[in-house]
Amino acid sequence: MQADERRRRSEQRLAREGVQAKDAPPVLREDQVCLRSTEEALLRALCLGVVGMYGDGLDRETTLEEVERWGLWPHFTPEEAELLRKERVDGSTLAAWSWHQEGGFALMWALGLLDELGAWDPEQAGSRNERLFSFSDLAALQSAVKVRSLPELVDEEDYYALYLAAYELIISPGTAVGMEAELGPIPAPAVRHRIGALSWLLGSGSSNAEEASSKA
User: Fold this and answer.
1) What global pTM score does this model have?
2) Among 103, 153, 215, 216, which is disulfide-ready with 193 (CB 3.0 to 4.6 Å)?
């Protein structure tokens, strides 16, 4: 019954936004969750934020300074590390990587560092990243965390899982990132990275960090 109610809430929420999902994935149950640690989640949010800001136009020198300041090299996926080690990256690749910060924002929301995720708004990205990277160190960042309740986290995961299912019905294979048709208030790449991060956090996806930073 709990799973049915959760799915019904997700369907109603999407319907209000003009999105109808079919071929829905199974509902994640709370007893299936294996929640990752706060430290692990913060480090993943920082990694996603760094590569996302780099993709969004942050210069390479400043990007690498943030990497060193937070000691992120051991925590990047191989794809993320390869991106940052290249001296030159073409614009279309960077644009695709910019969406990865949406996964970071999902983790910030889960950790209580954002009041809401809400509709996609590129104008908010700067202030959200500033919030994350303004802390002096990981200990100070951890002190600001207030992890959301498990029901709230699983509700949000179900909403985005259902949202992604709706997109998968209309996106043609090979469609370039950012060029997909739009459904409702959140573009497909943002939905994809938000659900990837939430699934990774809840342990319902891959045990690998790539689940939270779907390859560009």
Assistant:
1) 0.93
2) 103
